[in-house]
Amino acid sequence: MKKYDVIIIGAGQAGAPLAKKLANAGKKTVIIEKRFYGGTCVNDGCTPTKTWVASAKAAYMAGKSTELGVPVKRFSINMSQIKKRKDDIVLRSRNGGLHAAEKTKNLDVIFGEAIFTGDKTLQVNLNSGKKQTLQADLIFLNTGASPLIPQIDGLNDIKYLTSTTILDLDYVPEHLLILGGNYIGLEFGQMFRRFGSKVTILEKSARIVSHEDEDISAEMQNILEAEKITIHNNAHATKFKQKAGGKITVTVSAGDKESKIKCSHVLVAVGRTPQTEALQLQKTGVVTDETGHIKVNNKLETNIPGIYALGDVKGGPAFTHISYNDYTIVYRNIIEKQNLNINDRPVPYCMFTDPQLGRVGIDETEAKKLGLNYRVAKLPMAHVARAIETGDTRGFMKAIVDVKTKKILGAAVLGPEGGEIMTVLQMAMEGGITYDRIRYCVFAHPLYSESLNNLFMTLED
Ligand SMILES: Cc1cc2nc3c(=O)[nH]c(=O)nc-3n(C[C@H](O)[C@H](O)[C@H](O)COP(=O)(O)OP(=O)(O)OC[C@H]3O[C@@H](n4cnc5c(N)ncnc54)[C@H](O)[C@@H]3O)c2cc1C
């Protein structure tokens, strides 16, 4: 048995930077990763998808360039080049993180699967085939999540794609049917439509991105339908069937109607499930909830003192920046003896469709539900000078403000560079800059953010 000061399981967006920092702070640390260094974000999530989003945007702009007076008569998609570009960027990032870890004093990197065998004791089934037993008083669980596969008749009999396996495609599917109209499904749907696939999205709720405000779902649906993506709302896939080597037939029920759709590929994008089962957490007494997520307090400590869970595996907002922030919270609490918790941090996020949806704080639905004294400022992108000049007026900016304090409570920017514009509003929220001041801020013309003046002018009494 090898004893360490710190064991970190999972080299994700919290584990990897935490390992380096703790080792540099003098703790004898080991990080165990069963697959690729950097976890989901680097290997199967943000990095590869946003790399492909860039290629898809290039295709979209090629199609649109005639409108801007630059006729592109013909263009084609080289999917194997698009994949290679993505693979190169992913590998550079993965290897950069791994090499930095391997060079760090006090830090051991082990590749294998960690399984608890007793109190704060675990066995690692090394990828080399050997086994190793480790123990530490301080343990961090950063094992992330993997694609959730629903139980649907015949699904396991077809070769369906997930957000991970679709990234291996070096060709463009003829007809991609996507289960799930949320961030991952919409990002892939738009991207593959732009690469040339016919795309059909099945969403079981009444609207896509159903936890956003209704006007956002409606505008997003218009934007995607304008690109000839077919979206079925209130639609449940109930059966999959595929003749050897032939098309996949999907039975879809919507209300009391049943129909059949034929497609060449199916992408399952209905959510993600925590990777906790293999850990055998009961052997060390750590408790999970009914969905398998590890229960933590607001300092990210589990029910067992000294064992922490960070990132997607603890549930809650599943974003890279949240996992990364989890690491900074535990590091500062444990090493710098601060008293930070996760309750008060903002949770901004961006959906990387084109246009993007940047979101922070509460939305209109929540403001209504909480019975707040609020107002909604809304400005169509068609009124934004920069959007008109660049030829992309899809979407709108929207902010929820408190009538009495004039503080910004939340924002949604569905538009070109929506994530960046949202971040300007987030900074105002964090700095306590009220909307009546932003109305008269001098912003450089003609930036998208300049129109924040006009956004809040809409609230002029
Ligand atoms: C397609 C897609 C696109 C996304 N796009 C964005 C985006 O644009 N922006 C954003 O903020 N977020 C995005 N996300 C979410 C983001 O990737 C995750 O929230 C982020 O990676 C945080 O993950 P984590 O640190 O919790 O763990 P992960 O990064 O998932 O890392 C967990 C690691 O633990 C390892 N592991 C698991 N079990 C064991 C074990 N028993 N032993 C050893 N190792 C183990 C895994 O192999 C994995 O490497 C996206 C996700 C997907 C799937």
Describe the structure.
There is one protein chain. With 461 residues, this protein is of the alpha/beta class. The protein folds into three domains: 2-146 and 273-334, FAD/NAD(P)-binding domain; 155-270, FAD/NAD(P)-binding domain; 355-457, Enolase-like, domain 1, CATH 3.30.390. Helices cover 29% and strands 26% of the residues. It has twelve helices and 20 strands. It has helices spanning 15-24, 39-43, 46-64, 79-102, 183-195, 214-226, 320-334, 364-369, 385-390, 418-431, 435-438, 452-457, and strands at 2-9, 29-33, 107-118, 121-126, 131-141, 145-147, 175-179, 198-202, 230-232, 235-242, 248-254, 257-263, 265-268, 272-274, 307-309, 349-351, 356-361, 374-380, 396-402, 408-415. The strands form five sheets. It has a five-stranded mixed barrel with strand order 1-2-3-4-5. A five-stranded antiparallel beta sheet has the order 16-17-20-19-18. Strand 4 (121-126) and strand 5 (131-141) form a beta hairpin. The longest helix has 24 residues, at 79-102. It is globular. The protein starts with a strand and ends with a helix. The protein binds flavin-adenine dinucleotide.
